[in-house]
Amino acid sequence: MEISDKLLCLFSAEVEVEDGSYVVEVPRQEVDTGSVEPGETYRVALIEREREETTQGTESHDTAPSEPQPPVEIGETRYVEIEDIGKQGDGIARVERGYVIIVPGAEVGERVKIEVTEVKSNFAVGEIIEDTF
Questions:
Q1: Least buried of 29, 69, 71, 114, by fewest C-beta within 10 Å?
Q2: Taking a C-beta distance cutoff of 8 angstroms, is the pair 42, 34 a contact?
Q3: Among the residues of the chain, which ranges form H helices?
């Protein structure tokens, strides 16, 4: 799947019925961080939900957290390819579900091994520990 460079934020939400309309609620943090502005119009993309399977092949009915968990953890090492340069000149890599990892000092096209040093709900920061592999 290709993720647009115009992606402002990524979150999971339920489609709810409210007064005969279908509503997708935007998390407050996306407004608070300036990713989206109340009253503005945005394009919304819906991605098929991931279904977990139990060992018997049936769907799991465990309740999921209200916010998606980042696909990386502090201290984790990853091999990533730098796809873009951010507004402040840092390298940008994307991993599962389009999750962004900011890599200072990296250039577009570089493939580097990083250690994740900071994790937020919508992005992480990684430090290069091995240049081009």
A1: 69
A2: no
A3: 28-32
Query: Locate tokens 């990684």: which residue?
Result: 126
Joined together, the tokens standing for residue 73 give 């953890």
Token couple for 131: 């240049």
Write the DSSP symbol of residue 97.
Answer: G
Euclidean distance between CA atoms 128 and 106, whole angstroms: 8
Q: Check residue 14 and give its pLDDT.
A: 82
- Output the pTM of the full model: 0.52
Q: How far apart are CA 120 and CA 70, in angstroms?
A: 7
Distance CA 37, CA 26 (A): 10
Tokens of 90: 């840092």
